[in-house]
Design brief:
Elements: H1 2-7, H2 43-53, H3 75-86, H4 110-113, H5 124-137, E1 145-149, H6 160-164, E2 167-168, E3 188-189, E4 195-196, H7 201-212, H8 214-217, E5 223-229, H9 234-246, E6 252-256, H10 275-280, E7 285-288, H11 293-309, E8 315-319, H12 335-340, E9 343-346, E10 356-361, H13 365-380, E11 383-388, H14 392-408, H15 418-423, E12 430-433, H16 438-441
Parallel strand pairs: 1-4, 1-5, 2-3, 5-6, 6-8, 7-8, 10-11, 10-12
Antiparallel strand pairs: 9-11
Domain Pyruvate dehydrogenase E1 component middle: 114-328
Domain Transketolase-like C-terminal: 341-445
Pfam family, one: Transketolase_C_1
Length: 449
């Protein structure tokens, strides 16, 4: 059967294997549900196993259960060694021979660091597409970029990529697309760069993992961007997200139409209030929930640096929205704090005796936090300090790292978390708001002074 399967050419070969649990164990475990728990076999069962498979062990040695191997120089041993060497040897090893990539400086995204023109409203999804286009046009890394979409490219405003770089199809376009008379029609090509997987989140994630690990498997760094409805991400393919982490993948996952206040007309199936909580437990997944385009630009540029210049084995999960609004200019000198997960967006009036409150927020809800600050001042005379928190998860990890360092270095000056340092000298209650379940923001509660 093996020979027939191996020698058949010209078409796929299907092997149907009929197996028996505990085969060869006899009444000690063959075809029994207890096979998994069987720790030892009685001597009689071992003897029958020996006889059935012609194992060269004498009766006087059978109770010792000796280790059996093939003779040196035998065909069997040579075959096994040859197969092992084809696999790279006896010890697993990760190859790190890919060259570092020269990633763009933050200045390449300068347009996103400035305020949008008056009256011009954009979503963070549109900001991501602008960043993606900038990277695709970059002469150093453009050819390494792999955009992946499981379903609706147009939902994310990515249809411009159809004409620009095309959708990859190993056989090229085999049909006339329904939108062929439009400027940005559905263009497939053997040289296309977009991977369009239909409604197949698991398949698209496998594409992403293949590209995200190419630095090791092929010695070539690829930069995959997989964008999908955030409710249909880790909730559907959680095991693959963990597999990506185990395989030390590098790349960007983008949860579009994120949060619980988006796409309400389509019901609860689209309202994601927990993907950030799920991603928070994957230690080498770096997650952010940005509000403004400048936050997204800073975060993605830093991610490119970490993964492709420094070759750090992490991957990013970013949530982006479809809500359109005006974006302010980035406050001066906050780049480092954005990456840490918390920065001061706006400060209340100094030296004011008015009641004061510290307002924190992320994602689309941070805009409601800003509106709340304006309302508090206008209607109640309460001053507010506003803090953008694009990553409560990174803030929590920093806090736990600091706690551990302090525990292991009791005689050294004690360190403070970024949350503690940011809030220790301000006054008033601290209130945090997000579009996600309470467990998401509660991660930083132990570090609020």
């Amino acid at each position: 059967a093996y020979s027939a399967a191996n020698e058949h050419k010209g078409q796929p070969t299907l092997i149907l294997a009929k197996t028996i649990k505990g085969y060869g164990m006899g009444d000690a475990g063959q075809a029994m549900n207890i096979s998994h728990q069987q720790k030892k076999m009685p001597v009689d069962a071992i003897r029958r196993f020996r006889d059935q498979f012609n194992i060269p062990v004498s009766d006087d040695k059978i109770e010792e259960v000796p280790y059996i191997t093939f003779e040196e120089g035998s065909k069997e041993l040579e075959y096994m060694r040859a197969r092992r060497m084809e696999l790279g040897g006896y010890l697993p090893a990760r190859r790190q021979k890919a060259e570092a990539l020269k990633v763009p400086e933050l200045s390449a995204f300068d347009a996103l660091l400035k305020a949008t023109s008056e009256g011009r409203e954009v979503s963070t999804t549109m900001a991501f597409v602008r960043i993606l286009n900038t990277l695709l046009k970059d002469k150093q890394i453009g050819k390494h970029v792999v955009p992946i979409v499981p379903d609706e490219s147009r939902t994310f405003g990515m249809e411009g990529l159809f004409r620009q770089i095309g959708i990859w199809n190993q056989q090229g376009q085999k049909y006339v697309p329904e939108d062929h008379d439009q400027l940005m029609f559905y263009k497939e090509s053997q040289t296309g760069q977009v991977l369009q997987e239909g409604i197949n989140e698991a398949g698209a994630m496998c594409d992403w993992i293949a590209a995200a690990t190419s630095y090791s498997t092929h010695g070539i760094q690829m930069i995959p961007f997989y964008i999908y409805y955030s409710m249909f991400g880790i909730q559907r393919i959680g095991d693959l997200c963990w597999a990506a982490a185990d395989m030390r993948s590098r790349g960007f996952l983008l949860g579009g139409t994120s949060g619980r206040t988006t796409l309400n007309g389509e019901g609860l199936q689209h309202e994601d209030g927990h993907s950030h909580v799920f991603h928070a437990v994957i230690p080498n997944c770096i997650s952010y929930d940005p509000t403004f385009q400048y936050e997204l630009a800073v975060i993605m540029q830093d991610g490119l640096r970490r993964m492709y210049a420094e070759q750090e084995d992490v991957y990013y999960y970013l949530t982006v929205m479809n809500e359109n609004y005006e974006h302010p200019e980035m406050p001066a000198g906050v780049e480092g704090d954005i990456v840490k997960g918390m920065y001061q967006f706006r400060k209340g009036v100094e030296n004011s005796n008015a009641p004061r409150v510290q307002l924190l927020g992320s994602g689309t809800i941070f805009r409601e936090v800003i509106a709340a600050a304006d309302l508090l001042k206008k209607d109640w005379g309460v001053e507010s300090d506003l803090w953008g928190c694009p990553s409560f998860t990174e803030l929590a990890r920093d806090g736990h790292d600091v706690e551990r360092w302090n525990l292991l270095h009791p005689t050294e000056p004690q360190r403070e978390s970024h949350v503690t340092k940011s809030l220790k000298s301000v006054r008033g209650p601290v209130i945090a708001s997000t579009d996600y379940v309470r467990a998401f923001v509660d991660q930083i509660r132990p570090f609020v002074p």
